[in-house]
């Protein structure tokens, strides 16, 4: 079991606190009484710069997958003894390396409601061109587009887990015909969730709105590529609030630019933060948000509350074995 040295004081780094709310989202007093906490609001993608920043710290607090911690980074941080991560799992932390190096890793609870809600915000904003119309108002203009009514259209849900099943129920409430497919989904499981199962080829060809709700894995990486996009209707919309690499980004950019599909609502990208000058920042048929599916009041309170409790437990020497 890893425990902090009693002297000097334990140092804790809170990374990627973009909104500057880390210290106000929970009661940190059980930690700050015994440790010094430093927050960083900027993001470092350069590995050498990240290692230099983290070298003086015993504990690193990471928000979801904003900053990856692979073996190449962990092996260069001999002082690091604990990683507190928000969410129940963090695929960007090399858990095997952490265990080998004696670094304790903790997780937190969470909430899926905020991602479900953002999914529907993107569906509605993309189908009704809300960003363009809002900009028109701001610029002194008036009506500039014709929206798409969702009633009696087909909602295709790719992945019918905790998030996808809730998205599907809302689609039914909008009067949509909800269909689903994934590599493990069966017709019986789809029926139990109140939706129709379609085989893969029919699924992509049928959906008017296709929304992605899969975990990123080797099986799901690049699952939606040029062939899948070409199979979709030219009027179809693609919504992704899951993980960017599930959709082949280059193929998506080509499909949007050439009119293979009508538009996309995206909260996730291959590289985050999305680089300046990236085409998905400015394409007129894209409604983009900066990975904010989980960025809401209730999830943040849960994340920070549970993470502070885990750090306090580790400081007490009561944490479980590393990893």
Automatic annotation (TrEMBL):
Write down the InterPro entries for this protein, in alphabetical order.
Answer: D-2-hydroxyacid_DH, D-isomer_DH_CS, D-isomer_DH_CS1, D-isomer_DH_NAD-bd, NAD(P)-bd_dom_sf
Q: Which UniProt keywords apply?
A: NAD, Oxidoreductase
GO-annotated molecular function: NAD binding; oxidoreductase activity, acting on the CH-OH group of donors, NAD or NADP as acceptor
Question: Which intervals hold domain D-isomer specific 2-hydroxyacid dehydrogenase NAD-binding?
Answer: 121-293
Give the Pfam families listed for this entry: 2-Hacid_dh_C
| Claim: Cytoplasm is one of the keywords in the record | no
Q: Which top-rank group of organisms is this from?
A: Bacteria
Q: Supply the Gene3D superfamilies for this chain.
A: NAD(P)-binding Rossmann-like Domain
What PANTHER family does UniProt report for this protein, alphabetically? D-ISOMER SPECIFIC 2-HYDROXYACID DEHYDROGENASE FAMILY PROTEIN (AFU_ORTHOLOGUE AFUA_6G10090)
* Protein family: Belongs to the D-isomer specific 2-hydroxyacid dehydrogenase family.
What this protein is called in its record is 2-hydroxyacid dehydrogenase
Provide the organism lineage as a comma list. Bacteria, Bacillati, Actinomycetota, Actinomycetes, Mycobacteriales
């Amino acid at each position: 079991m890893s425990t902090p040295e009693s002297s000097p004081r334990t140092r804790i780094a809170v990374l990627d606190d973009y909104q500057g709310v880390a210290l106000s989202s929970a009661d940190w007093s059980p930690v700050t009484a015994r440790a010094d906490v430093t927050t960083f609001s900027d993001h470092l993608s350069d590995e050498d710069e990240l290692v230099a920043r983290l070298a003086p710290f015993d504990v690193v607090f990471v928000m979801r997958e904003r900053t990856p911690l692979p073996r190449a980074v962990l092996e260069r941080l001999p002082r690091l003894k604990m990683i507190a991560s928000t969410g129940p799992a963090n695929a960007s932390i090399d858990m095997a390396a952490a265990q080998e190096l004696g670094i304790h890793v903790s997780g937190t609870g969470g909430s899926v409601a905020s991602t479900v809600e953002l999914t529907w915000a993107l569906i509605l904003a993309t189908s009704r061109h809300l960003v363009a119309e809002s900009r028109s108002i701001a610029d002194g203009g008036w009506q500039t587009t014709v929206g798409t009514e969702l009633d009696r259209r087909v909602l295709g849900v790719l992945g019918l887990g905790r998030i996808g099943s809730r998205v599907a129920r809302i689609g039914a409430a909008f009067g949509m015909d909800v269909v689903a497919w994934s590599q493990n989904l069966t017709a019986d499981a789809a029926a139990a969730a109140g939706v129709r199962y379609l085989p893969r080829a029919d699924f992509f060809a049928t959906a008017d709105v296709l929304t992605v709700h899969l975990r990123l894995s080797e099986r799901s990486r690049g699952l939606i590529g040029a062939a899948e996009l070409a199979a979709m209707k030219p009027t179809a919309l693609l919504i992704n609030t899951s993980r960017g690499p599930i959709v082949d980004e280059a193929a998506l950019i080509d499909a949007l630019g050439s009119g293979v599909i009508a538009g996309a609502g995206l909260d996730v990208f291959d590289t985050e933060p999305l680089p300046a000058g990236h085409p998905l920042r400015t394409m007129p048929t894209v409604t983009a948000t900066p990975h904010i599916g989980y960025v809401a009041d209730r999830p943040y309170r849960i994340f920070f509350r549970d993470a502070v409790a885990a750090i306090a437990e580790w400081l007490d020497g009561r944490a479980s074995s590393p990893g």
